[in-house]
Amino acid sequence: MIITTTHSVEGHQIAEYEGIVVGEAILGANLLRDLFAGITDIIGGRSGAYEQALGKARETALDEMADRARDMGADAVVGVDLDYEVMNDMLMVSASGTAVRLG
């Protein structure tokens, strides 16, 4: 499955648009609370544990989006956008794009 932020896939033509696909992942309240509580501890540095958690959430959202595109018969997802939202003490990572069949 090709996943790209561009609106085309170099070397391929888009034969058919299958529709919009979305994948989400939510990080629980404890992680977010710990992140903000420990912000003074990581100023000027990086927190590997939180970067790993965010990376896993992003990967989960992208995988879920790709699975939905695959279920629609798509070969690729173009125009992918990643969004991060805080909702009720939880962090949501959302990936969206357009599922397409390549020609």
From TrEMBL:
It comes from the Bacteria. This is UPF0145 protein D9R08_10480. It holds the Pfam family YbjQ_1. Belongs to the UPF0145 family. InterPro entries: UPF0145_dom_sf, UPF0145_YbjQ-like. Transmembrane segments: none annotated.
